[in-house]
From TrEMBL:
The name this protein goes by in its record: Uncharacterized protein
Keyword Membrane: yes
Regions annotated as coiled coil: none
Keyword set, alphabetical order: Membrane, Transmembrane, Transmembrane helix
Transmembrane domains' residue ranges: 12-35, 68-92, 98-119, 181-206, 212-233, 245-271, 283-303
The keyword Flavoprotein appears for this protein: no
Organism: Paspalum notatum var. saurae
CC per GO annotation: membrane
Amino acid sequence: MSLTPADGAAYWLRWQVFVCAALIALPAAAAAALLPRLRRAAPPPRAADLWVSCWARLHPGWLLGFRAFAFVAAVALLARVLVAHGVAAFYFYTQWTFLLVTIYFAFATAISAHGCWVYSRKNSRKADESHGFLNVDVENHDISNSISGERMKDATNKMVSYYEQIANERRAGFWGRCMQVIYQTSAGATMLTDVTYWGLLVPFFYHDKFGLALFTDGMHSLNVIFLLIDTVLNNMPFPWYRMAFFVFWSCTYVTFQWVLHACGALSWWPYPFLDLSSPGSPLWYLGMAIAHIPCFFLYLLIVKAKHTYFPRMFPHAYIRTV
């Protein structure tokens, strides 16, 4: 007889549950342990890379325009799904991931807008004034030998402050780093969502488990299309170690599902392979855990292909600064 979460302890104290729990906890623990070490070894991201394009002649406003369009379209699609299905739509990993993509484009739109504002205010006069300030200090030092030690120290402090300001401007702040983390988490999650949906659910489970609304809502295509277009246009780095956040994201979703079922708030599994009632459920959990690696590295391969082939195909248009 097949057990369900409604059977209480009999369902949750079987060996399959403990093995599946280990398959959730161990990857999350490994990612949490390795992430700080790998992140310290990587160079800090630059603020300008968040809003400039990798195309030399493309004004940042075009990237802003696309990101704003993608954000509005994603919000409209989410609103449509919420009106049709209510908050129950967020029982599915697809909606979780699409919400994350929407949050990314919200961040990206805001940071691109700020970057365009900075770009519009940047002019040669301001740069010349800063350069002239340094030259004046050097010339005064060379011509006049009567400069006091206190003034020399003050001039040196100003120069140090000037260079520190430039260095700080080139580093991404907290919100910029959040944007990059969401970007890479979304990239892995969209690949996992679309590969699972089109490669597993539609061929084997669609007719039995899913309705036409989920098949036609477009979320399983627009998510990756929006991100791929942004990837073609943006100049952001894509370090592989941020796969850890992708692992955290998926583990959070599965934990969320387990809590709902343990509390009796949900009696059915949004995805058949999450059901713990079958003796083969650990194999499904292991397979989905392993699937995170090729899904993330497939997107990483796309980014590397961009950096490898675009400079050859468009040597005078494409620039790479990351």
